[in-house]
Amino acid sequence: MNSIIRQRLFQQIVSLAKISGRNYYIPRRALLYVPGDDPKKISKSFTLDADCIALDCEDGVAINRKENARETIRSFLDKGKPTLSRDYDLGVRINSLETPYWQEDLKACLTAKFLPDTILVPKIETDETVRLFSDELGKYIGTNQILNLIIYIESAKAFINLVDICKTTESLSKTGNFRPVCLVFGSDDFCANIGITRTEDANEVLYARQKLVLVAKAFHLQAIDMVYIKYKDLEGLKMQCQQGMRMGYTGKQVIHPGQVSVVQDAFLPSPSQIEWALGLLKSFEEHQKQGKGAFTYKGNMIDMPTMKQAENTAKLARLKTS
Amino acid sequence: MNSIIRQRLFQQIVSLAKISGRNYYIPRRALLYVPGDDPKKISKSFTLDADCIALDCEDGVAINRKENARETIRSFLDKGKPTLSRDYDLGVRINSLETPYWQEDLKACLTAKFLPDTILVPKIETDETVRLFSDELGKYIGTNQILNLIIYIESAKAFINLVDICKTTESLSKTGNFRPVCLVFGSDDFCANIGITRTEDANEVLYARQKLVLVAKAFHLQAIDMVYIKYKDLEGLKMQCQQGMRMGYTGKQVIHPGQVSVVQDAFLPSPSQIEWALGLLKSFEEHQKQGKGAFTYKGNMIDMPTMKQAENTAKLARLKTS
Amino acid sequence: MNSIIRQRLFQQIVSLAKISGRNYYIPRRALLYVPGDDPKKISKSFTLDADCIALDCEDGVAINRKENARETIRSFLDKGKPTLSRDYDLGVRINSLETPYWQEDLKACLTAKFLPDTILVPKIETDETVRLFSDELGKYIGTNQILNLIIYIESAKAFINLVDICKTTESLSKTGNFRPVCLVFGSDDFCANIGITRTEDANEVLYARQKLVLVAKAFHLQAIDMVYIKYKDLEGLKMQCQQGMRMGYTGKQVIHPGQVSVVQDAFLPSPSQIEWALGLLKSFEEHQKQGKGAFTYKGNMIDMPTMKQAENTAKLARLKTS
């Protein structure tokens, strides 16, 4: 797009965002893992412009470094979330609830001076695990505080129970102190669990990959796509980003700083998505002025999740044009 | 096939159809939408030889034309279903039960002098919606009258609840005044809901598209494939018809008169399907004569739905040869 | 791999197998069907080195030969399972529980002097069928005897009920005299049931094929892939074996002796799988020596099914190197 159109787009979005005045969603295009026991890498991660930074206690940290990771993460949280040029999500990935580490992980970050925005919980396989997490969370933070919850789906059993996991999470979040925001497709553990060998087009995981995004959307959650392991192959990364985005994924896991900008760019909305979102927001604005009843847009009844989706797209569009 | 074989095939089917004497299924290869507020297009639709004509109150009609569509459809129904050279399905697509329009839509067509064959209900997401529809239907027509019901599945939530929707529909139909006959894959709304961008091979919707046809068949329903939007590209349409038919779809939605004949041709049964159906019907005939017990064909126990499927194939084969 | 590495690998596995001392899984790469009424073919099957031989009462036997098949199978069982150069699985495929034949089939093989290892039950569609089978089994064999159960999934309805079937089977097996070991994708009946026409890449059955392997793994079962019908095309067979193995399948149905060796070779584990399994078993050995608590390997908590999987891979690796 040329700069005049981009400017006009930008102005439209700014004014519309003011009118609707809501801010439910934040984009999570690149979900970047940083080893929790490496202060240097953590510091660097704040310079990379990733939508979501996950300080890792899990796979990225050796067993004999778990305690070290907790202390390092806690000391970062004590200093407060660094202010960057734009908002981002700062999370902590704890160890799986099947391990003996997760409670200490949770304690370390929930008793820091400042809370992280988000807790990322790997290897959730049943709704019972969500209950366990919810109970533990309640020990540390009050009901006036709300943490985001990012759920990892990475085994056959988890896929069998996926709808139940989401239902229970949604239900518990109504009275609890967390809010589910994402499902993550933990493809490496998933492939190991099933015995899958992936090829470049990842056709072997198509069933699971598309089921995850469908269930995520049914529960108004973002869907984060699998890791692209060959971190030096940025062209391959871009292709897989686009493939995932076409399926409805809203972001992708990132294991190397060099992958961040490719992912952030690839998950910007397309021109047709931007047009749809702006049209919807504008139509809503006019509708509000006229005090009409049911709100429809292009023949569809518009509900709150759809409004949120439009606003999210509009926000991303602003990133594209700024 | 040459004309002698075609003639023999035709004679076989005619005689077999007489013997079995059942007529549960009618083919629904092309499901053609006609805007309910356009008398000219409605009149034209009866000349197009589509298996199923849907007079549309929903997406094809602007909001300020809804009342007009109801009146137009009603006046057509009052005149009685036009007699064409062969049988076809005449239906009305009402607005979604989430809108404020559907009850008026239903009233308009159910209080006409002659009922339509079929009601098409878009955007069904839960079995609760089916109950609501069933209750409303009961207000207008008696239990001695049976309308066909065509169900649209077009959101993530609908796919989550798909088996429940079909179970409830099957259960309600036993005492109610409707009979479920089809599931329709409402791909455009589905893609918008999930955030999917389709490519030409539609690999992005493969999970949903194949789940729908599997569930449809588990409940002995026909499965109607997605719309092919590029209505001028008849070669592309044909390819997508064949792709859907290979997956088990029995028909396809049609948004333009020019698409009808391609779709009707593409969904004719293949020679091997015809051979299977004729063999089964013939075997059944012999079996009946001999008064034997359990009926098997090529090693499979044959139940009523399979008989129906064979008869449907035989009917379509007759179209192919006539 | 060169012979020195192969020798070292072999020694490692032998010593590790001694330490862990468990033997839950046996490989089932080629599942070979032999018509139960053909003594010559049965005798030949024992020379073919297939992991699993299924003496067939079902599709491979004409209706007027069912009684003959039962007698032939019984007389083979009376002589005792032939000892071959390595262990294998000897099973009997009975007729579907929807037919009037299955009880006689079961009686014939369960009252023989020696039991088969495994009963293969086709066309299971609901968990009720598993109960029926379990009850019938209980009439013939005591609770101190355990037969393997191989379950065929081959219709839309079966896929709808797949998780329920597996849950009930798992539950019944805890007190019953059978142990579920495999799910088989009965693709030919499945395609006929849905109305699917398969192409060479089998993309039309992708949803079902990947759902089956996922559910199998969630219940710690092996997954046996579809039949490759063109039995003279060994290159095509090999391609489809590799495709299935990449998806997580552990074996394949074989309808012709000429297919056995291709399938047995194709389903050997890959070098990376062997490396993973050996590493895990070795790590477990060291862990046991040191008397540590929770056992993790490469960041994952290792549970019993994963140990079994590693041992199975190690066994197959031994076949590869011997």
UniProtKB/TrEMBL annotation, chains A, B, C:
Cofactor(s) this protein cannot do without? Mg(2+)
GO molecular-function annotation terms? Answer: (S)-citramalyl-CoA lyase activity; hydrolase activity; malate synthase activity; metal ion binding
Q: Which reaction does it catalyse?
A: (3S)-citramalyl-CoA = pyruvate + acetyl-CoA; propanoyl-CoA + glyoxylate + H2O = 3-methylmalate + CoA + H(+); glyoxylate + acetyl-CoA + H2O = (S)-malate + CoA + H(+)
Task: List membrane-spanning regions.
Answer: none
Record-level GO BP terms? regulation of cobalamin metabolic process
| Claim: Magnesium is one of the keywords in the record | yes
GO cellular component, alphabetical, reads:
mitochondrion
Q: Which residues bind Mg(2+)?
A: 154, 189
Name where it mostly resides.
Answer: mitochondrion
Q: Which InterPro entries match?
A: Aldolase/citrate-lyase_domain (IPR005000), Citramalyl-CoA_lyase (IPR040186), Citrate_lyase_beta/mcl1/mcl2 (IPR011206), Pyrv/PenolPyrv_kinase-like_dom (IPR015813), Pyrv_kinase-like_dom_sf (IPR040442)
- Residues annotated for substrate binding in this entry: 93, 154
Q: Which UniProt keywords apply?
A: Acetylation, Hydrolase, Lyase, Magnesium, Metal-binding, Mitochondrion, Transferase, Transit peptide
Q: What is its EC number?
A: 2.3.3.9, 3.1.2.30, 4.1.3.25
Q: Which residues form the HpcH/HpaI aldolase/citrate lyase domain?
A: 29-257
Q: Name one Pfam family in it.
A: HpcH_HpaI
Q: Which cell locations does it reside in?
A: Mitochondrion
Is Transferase among the key words of this record?
A: yes
Subunit comment: Homotrimer.
Q: Which family does it belong to?
A: Belongs to the HpcH/HpaI aldolase family. Citrate lyase beta subunit-like subfamily.
- What PANTHER family does UniProt report for this protein, alphabetically? CITRAMALYL-COA LYASE, MITOCHONDRIAL (PTHR11105:SF0), CITRATE LYASE SUBUNIT BETA-RELATED (PTHR11105)
* Primary role: Mitochondrial citramalyl-CoA lyase indirectly involved in the vitamin B12 metabolism. Converts citramalyl-CoA into acetyl-CoA and pyruvate in the C5-dicarboxylate catabolism pathway. The C5-dicarboxylate catabolism pathway is required to detoxify itaconate, a vitamin B12-poisoning metabolite. Also acts as a malate synthase in vitro, converting glyoxylate and acetyl-CoA to malate. Also displays malyl-CoA thioesterase activity. Also acts as a beta-methylmalate synthase in vitro, by mediating conversion of glyoxylate and propionyl-CoA to beta-methylmalate.
Name this polypeptide is given = Citramalyl-CoA lyase, mitochondrial
Q: Which organism is it from?
A: Dendroctonus ponderosae
The encoding gene is 109537808
